[in-house]
């Protein structure tokens, strides 16, 4: 099936609105993507005619909602080509997922002096939980810097592995630069467990967990055109068996007495409390929407956008693109001499163009580039070449103002 961007755009109601009397050009999907009508309708349907709590009732609505909720686990497994459905653990997003691994798997196992290999490309969600282990247990963080162009060769990550390395935690795609990291080559090159942050990568390209060989992989729903507060952490069965529960409460137990607890089998063991029922149902609708379009088709469209945007932005020789690696997604972080990133974002917003400005929850990477902030344009499947042109024209207008 060919990819028809106009047809896709028609599924997103918000894209027809205006901002500051200009057509909305939404280039902040790296922070949070807009939602198609199919997701909005699934959420509305779940609340209007099907809602009840899951797993706890014998009545019709509870059984119906439980079925609709639990089927999302199979949808996520299919979307990621996960080997087993019960390896999918529902979370509120990647941050909760990585913290689950930190508290449930790493904290009980790591000793003072044990090492975690991290890249400087990481989002804070894949940094702060490991700092907790550094502060509280004496774990050592071993940092790997990218190349000057923002790329991160697998060999460079593997070279940082030592006899006390217990985990490699690395992004699959940088949220700042779009750099794609070959996490499969990293996993194949070592026996050390690998956690891959798939928050960006799973949005922009097919992910095949059966082929990648990593041990942990997280996705977050709000970037995948689904609701905020939805997501999943895929954890290999062998690693689940090594984990202790992270949160305690309902659903993660079989029985509780005054003297003992008998825990439920995974994945419920790691899903305490009433979950984000409708959020996850909405995520399931989003992933089915993506699979209907075809992730290969989406990736091809976005590669075309990336190449066109790269040419347009490179032609602005006064604009600095931070970390423009050859193998990357359609994400561009930009700086301009004499203007702060916040200035660029504010001026572009007056023209209806939404970009992100700041450190993008990646302060170590900002430090590596020698900057404190950038303006980031992150493209999605619903963006067009005309919107790339609008961005380039808006940046040229910024240049005129600051010349």
Automatic annotation (TrEMBL):
It comes from Paracoccus haematequi. Its cofactor is pyridoxal 5'-phosphate. Keywords: Pyridoxal phosphate, Transferase. GO terms for biological process: cysteine metabolic process. PANTHER family: CYSTEINE DESULFURASE, CYSTEINE DESULFURASE 1, CHLOROPLASTIC. Residues 25-391 form the Aminotransferase class V domain. It is an enzyme of class 2 (transferase). This is Cysteine desulfurase. One of its GO terms (molecular function) is cysteine desulfurase activity. SUPFAM superfamilies: PLP-dependent transferases. Belongs to the class-V pyridoxal-phosphate-dependent aminotransferase family. Csd subfamily. It holds the Pfam family Aminotran_5. InterPro entries: Aminotrans_V_dom, Aminotrans_V_PyrdxlP_BS, Cys_dSase_SufS, PyrdxlP-dep_Trfase, PyrdxlP-dep_Trfase_major, PyrdxlP-dep_Trfase_small. Coiled coil: none annotated. It catalyses: (sulfur carrier)-H + L-cysteine = (sulfur carrier)-SH + L-alanine. Its EC number is 2.8.1.7. Catalyzes the removal of elemental sulfur and selenium atoms from L-cysteine, L-cystine, L-selenocysteine, and L-selenocystine to produce L-alanine.
